[in-house]
């Protein structure tokens, strides 16, 4: 493996979620641990609309490999645990896949939407 294989994505390839993850631009963070960051969607489509982003970059569900197949499940578990702790008992979880599937930001993320408002 050559050194370039370890290189970070070039600036023009970094998405807005790379910058949110790396705290280069602000976001309304509601949860963070070593594997995931969750923040409020800037254009909410439900009273609660959160995005769960893995710290490890994967562009899209379409790019998941056997090596990264645990990541979507991990995001679902984090969202499930978060919702339970916040008393949100009904919600939708969505992955948009590729531009044709409505994915605007090419950094894997799980939408959590609920008619219930996040109280704290
Ligand atoms: P998707 O269409 O699945 O790629 O979803 C991208 C989501 O990111 C959209 O719902 C946007 O409203 C949201 N979004 C874009 N920029 C930001 C930002 N700076 N902070 C929070 N959410 C954002």
Please name the defining characteristics of this protein.
5-stranded antiparallel beta sheet; 120 residues; HIT family, subunit A
Summarize it.
The protein is α+β, with helices and mostly antiparallel strands and 120 residues long. It is built from 2 helices and 5 strands. The structure holds adenosine monophosphate (AMP).
Question: How does this structure look, described?
Answer:
The radius of gyration is 15 Å and the shape is globular. Residues 1-5 have low confidence and may be disordered. It is 19% helix and 20% strand. The longest helix is centred in the middle third of the chain and has 17 residues, at 70-86. The chain has a single domain (3-114), classed as HIT family, subunit A (2-Layer Sandwich). The protein is an alpha+beta fold and 120 residues long. It has 2 helices and 5 strands, in the order H-E-E-E-H-E-E. The site of adenosine monophosphate has 12 residues, from loops.
The CATH architecture can be named as: 2-Layer Sandwich
Question: How are the strands of the biggest sheet laid out side by side?
Answer: 1-2-3-5-4
Helical proportion?
Answer: 10-25%
Kindly report how far apart the N and C termini lie. 47 Å
Structurally, the number of domains stands at: 1
CATH H level, superfamily name: HIT-like
Q: Beta-strand level of the residues, as a percent range?
A: 15-25%
Number of strands: 5
Q: Low-confidence segments, ≥5 residues, pLDDT <50?
A: 1-5
How big is the Rg? 15 Å
Task: Identify the CATH class.
Answer: Alpha Beta
CA-based shape: globular
Helical segment count: 2
Q: Secondary-structure element order, as H and E?
A: HEEEHEE
Bound molecules: adenosine monophosphate
Question: Mean pLDDT, rounded to whole units?
Answer: 92
């Amino acid at each position: 493996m050559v050194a370039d294989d370890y290189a970070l994505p070039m600036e023009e390839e970094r998405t807005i979620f790379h910058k949110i993850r790396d705290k280069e631009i602000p976001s309304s963070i509601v949860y963070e641990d070593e594997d995931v960051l969750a923040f409020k969607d800037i254009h909410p489509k439900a009273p609660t609309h959160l995005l769960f982003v893995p710290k490890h970059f994967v562009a899209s569900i379409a790019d998941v490999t056997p090596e990264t197949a645990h990541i979507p499940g991990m995001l679902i578990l984090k969202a499930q645990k978060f919702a339970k702790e916040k008393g949100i008992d009904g919600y939708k979880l969505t992955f948009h896949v590729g531009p044709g599937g409505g994915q605007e930001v090419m950094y894997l993320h799980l939408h959590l939407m609920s008619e219930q408002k996040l109280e704290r």
